[in-house]
Amino acid sequence: MKNLSNMNFTKSFDRARNTVKGCLFTAMGLCVLGLVINESLPDAAKYVTIAAVVLIVIGCALVALCLKCPYCGRQIISKCLTVTSCPHCKRNLTTGMKTKGKKR
Ligand SMILES: [Zn+2]
Predict the structure, then answer these.
(1) 33: CA distance to ligand 1 center in Å?
(2) If you measure from the C-alpha of residue 14 to the centroid of ligand 1, how many angstroms do you get, rounded to a whole number?
(3) Is 50 exceeded by the pLDDT of residue 2?
(4) Gap from CA of 57 to ligand 1 centroid (Å)
(5) Around ion ligand 1, which residues have CB less than 5 A away?
(6) Ligand 1 center to 60 CA (angstroms)
(7) Could you tell me the distance, in angstroms and rounded to a whole number, from the CA of residue 66 to the centre of ligand 1?
(8) Among 28, 52, 69, 103, which residue is least crowded by beta carbons within 10 Å?
(9) How far apart are CA 72 and CA 51, in angstroms?
(10) Can you tell me the distance from the alpha carbon of 19 to that of 37, in angstroms, rounded to the nearest whole number?
């Protein structure tokens, strides 16, 4: 954590995005688990659901706080899990290369 400001920004974007993916993926798994055990273990299912909600909240908070373009500093919310280049300054988020004015 202490090297965060010195770190390559693109790596931190990738890492934040992977963390978000992990959170949401785990949350989905917990939701399914909650549904599966709801019949036999309703109490445990309750905690599983709470954990899933917490993970989703953490995931959303990470998106809001950490998923910013390393070049122009704007937040990238839409399609943040799949986007490869910044919608604002058009730079590639992994390589930093400017995408040449191609609109798709
Ligand atoms: Zn940008």
Answers:
(1) 38
(2) 14
(3) no
(4) 25
(5) 69, 71-72, 86, 88-89
(6) 20
(7) 13
(8) 103
(9) 34
(10) 26
Tokens of 88: 């604002």
2, two tokens: 């202490």
Whole-number Å distance, alpha carbon 54 to ligand 1 midpoint, is: 29
Q: How far is the CA of 55 from the centre of ligand 1 (A)?
A: 27
Mean pLDDT of 62-89: 88
In which residue are the tokens 């799949």 written? 82
Dig out the tokens for 79 from the structure.
């399609």
Task: Please answer whether residues 93 and 83 qualify as being in contact, where contact means their C-beta atoms are separated by less than 8 angstroms.
Answer: yes
Q: State residue 25's pLDDT score.
A: 96
Question: Do residues 76 and 33 lie in contact, with contact meaning Cβ atoms separated by under 8 Å?
Answer: no
* One-letter identity of residue 56: I
| pLDDT band per the 50, 70, 90 thresholds, residue 12 | confident
Percent of the chain scoring above 90 in pLDDT = 50
Name the least confident of 42-46, 57-61, 73-77, 94-98.
94-98
